[in-house]
Description:
26% strand; Aminopeptidase; seven-stranded mixed β-sheet; alpha+beta; 11 helices
Amino acid sequence: MIDFLNPAAWNAFVREESGSPLQSWEWGVFQETLGKKIVRVADDDFVALFIWQTLPFHRGYWYAPRGPVVRRNTDLGNVFEKFRRKSAERLAKEPERAISIRVEPDYMNAPEASTALQALGFTKANPVQPHETRILDLKNPEVQLLKEMEHDTRYAIRTAERRSITVRLISDKHDKQNAFDVFWDLFEETAKRHDLKNYPENYYRELFALYGDLKTVVAASYLEKTPINASIILLFGKEAIYLYSASRTGYGRYNAPSLALWKAIQFAKADGRTKFDLWGVSREKSGWKGITSFKEGFGGTQIREPGAWDYPINKFFYHLYRSLTKLPH
């Protein structure tokens, strides 16, 4: 059985089964740093990091972001049944008054995961993480990655280079912390410009601090000495995720975000990553039109995740919760 108290063993399983960075040991530590309560559950065929999510009236639910991670080439029905049983037993020991378990397995198991979960009494819930994304295959040579981009994206990259945009890839822990104020200034400006909701400042500061098996790299773009774009890339195992990006108003013609993302892709490939997740696209959400077009310009494969699924622990309060919220039926 996997030693779920051993960070190295936990991460080895997640990496070997192509699990998400959001199920890594360090993501749990990161959540604890932010004051969240976590619980880890593991067996020979799965691991699951749960994060407590508070609801009104002293209730809440346990949420496994992009989890559980299950062993590939197994009977998903049997594995999910074991996961449901063992998770319910483990989480019942916690003092929190949970109404449900929420899981959100990644696309590696789709569509079989949805079928298996529904057969076990899980019901569809609203996605927490992006429901659709685009994945770049970094095993392809750079010339192939460039060829698969849209013409306008390649042109934007060349334009940024001609207009003297420089991109600095910051991976050293100390250097990242020194660069945080640059990112935060740009991020606050971007959030205000687009009326975006975001996490408190400490969330992003702690993201910058990630270093080790799970780490972040910052791609910062400059026009001479003026920072005009900054992005956070999350790295774990063979995967890189384009997690957050922010830009200064009035510098759109320089195409700094396009060059910064391309430099981040090159960095991830050179660092031995084989998958680059552009993390969130949608043609259905009107507010996502611009960022979706931007990401689609880089090519890759469109992926639709199985979405979120709930398993009721307290049926009375769970059905009350569903009746009061806009959950799918």
